[in-house]
Amino acid sequence: MKFVIAGNGIAAITTARTISNQAPGSQIEIYTDERHPFYWRPQLIQLLAGRLHLEKLYAYPPEWYATRGIEVHLGTRVVQLDVSGQRILLEDGTEVFYDRLLLAVGSSPFEPPLAGMGEDGVFTLRTIEDALDIKTYAQQCLAAGRTETVVIGGGLLGLECSSALTSLGLQVTVLEHGPWLLHRQIDEKGSVVFQEQIERLGIRVMTNAVPEGILASGSVSQVAVEDGRRLPACLVLCATGVRPNVALARDAGLDVNKGIIVDHRLRTSAEHVYAAGDVAEYEGQLPCIIPAAVEQGRVAGSNMVEPDSATYRGTVPSTTLNVVGLELTSIGQIDPREEGYEELRQADAATGVYRKLVLRDGRIVGAILLGDRQRVPTVTKLIKQRTDVSRYKDRLLDDDVDLEEIIHP
Ligand SMILES: Cc1cc2nc3c(=O)[nH]c(=O)nc-3n(C[C@H](O)[C@H](O)[C@H](O)COP(=O)(O)OP(=O)(O)OC[C@H]3O[C@@H](n4cnc5c(N)ncnc54)[C@H](O)[C@@H]3O)c2cc1C
User: Fold this and answer.
1) CA 174, CA 240: separation in Å to the nearest integer?
2) pTM for the model
3) Taken in order 290, 291, 292, 298, is the CA torsion positive or negative?
């Protein structure tokens, strides 16, 4: 059987590996428009900061693909999908036929509709080329004696980029349109402790700050904020979310909403066509995180080999901020607004620690752990295993409680 995969991110690689494990000897072909073999996108932050060299970025050597029978076609964009003919069309006009197809084409940075977005010195970060371009431009700014940098978007990516750019020697201001940073990862009380930590890293934060436009004279020079302020900037980085790459699927007539709609087997509306990763929408959810891409890739791969052999039931969202000197992990429901939830909290601004557990029916359903890496693995297990913790509830956040004992009494 011939398996064809469009895209070469973590969803594609996980699916390919699953297929090769479950059906050794299968023909597996990956087509990607990127010129590089698979790499972990979070490492782009290290590449940008100059802490990692390009050659160290590639996840696997060529033998890894060869021994699994995976053939990767780099720099090869898929431009069309013909579901009735079970074939895809490549940029150079080549047709590729499939028995099973996976769409794992990921997502692209959302570019806010601001005047000046296309100006020299305005960037988004998604690929190796983006990271290298930003780094080169940053070095040119520094060589010209300019350091003012504006990052639009105070989410995970915006803050990770801010930290990387700061470490290069730039002076970064983050513009966040909401009332606090990382509103998907931390609640309002925790954000007070968190913002102090971010500012200690030398990053300036402006919340409730809506950018109005980017001004340029030859290259970017200022960011205009709706309240009338003008921020000087030699470099602007937009980190304002992503949008799934649905064009291929939509043009082929597949059911598409914000993402490509998939069922619990990761099947799309077209026969023999599956989707996984950032591009897939399951029950209205688009997590756009690596754990979801991995779980979906496994299920899609299994079902592509053996229909109905694996089931996807959604992914508990879990994210970790990758900023040197700052440890923040958020899991599950961190700030539910409905009735029926209990919240346990501890905050210590002096040590930069903020812990919050959200409970429902005696089980932990969400957690924020700032400055407390130790608890992350056990709390994650308790959430995923839906362990009843009601007997320990009053002591869950105490320093002397060993959460492992709750898991293995
Ligand atoms: C800098 C950065 C840091 C991140 N950090 C984290 C983190 O710490 N934790 C986390 O959970 N998530 C993180 N993410 C998000 C995470 O990387 C994504 O959720 C993940 O990469 C999604 O994997 P994917 O395989 O679905 O898509 P992608 O990784 O986007 O891969 C899709 C691939 O398909 C290719 N493609 C698109 N269209 C076509 C076409 N028509 N033909 C051929 N190829 C095509 C794309 O070029 C791309 O290579 C980060 C993202 C970035 C950019």
Assistant:
1) 12
2) 0.95
3) positive
Tell me which residue has its CA closest to atom 41 in ligand 1.
78
State the residue for tokens 């520094």. 142
Ligand 1: list residues with CB < 6 Å: 6-12, 31-34, 41-42, 44-45, 77-78, 104-107, 125-126, 157, 245, 248, 277-278, 288-291, 293, 319, 322
Enter the tokens of residue 59: 């996840």
Tokens standing for residue 177: 């349109």
User: For residues 331 and 374, what is the distance between their CA atoms, to the nearest angstrom?
Assistant: 14
Q: From the CA of 129, how far away is ligand 1's center (Å)? A: 14
Q: Is the pLDDT of residue 409 over 70?
A: no
- How are beta strands 204-206 and 211-217 bridged, if at all? unpaired
What ranges in 50-127 are assigned the alpha helix state H?
Answer: 62-67
Kindly report the protein residue whose alpha carbon is nearest to atom 37 of ligand 1. 105
Residue 244 CB-half CA count within 13 A: 26
C-alpha distances out from residue 161 to 121, 147, 322, 345, Å: 15, 15, 10, 29
Amino acid letter for position 263: D
Model confidence pLDDT, tens digit, residues 155-178: 999 999 999 999 999 999 999 999
Q: Classify 211 as helix, strand or coil.
A: strand
User: Ligand 1, atom 53: nearest CA belongs to which residue?
Assistant: 126
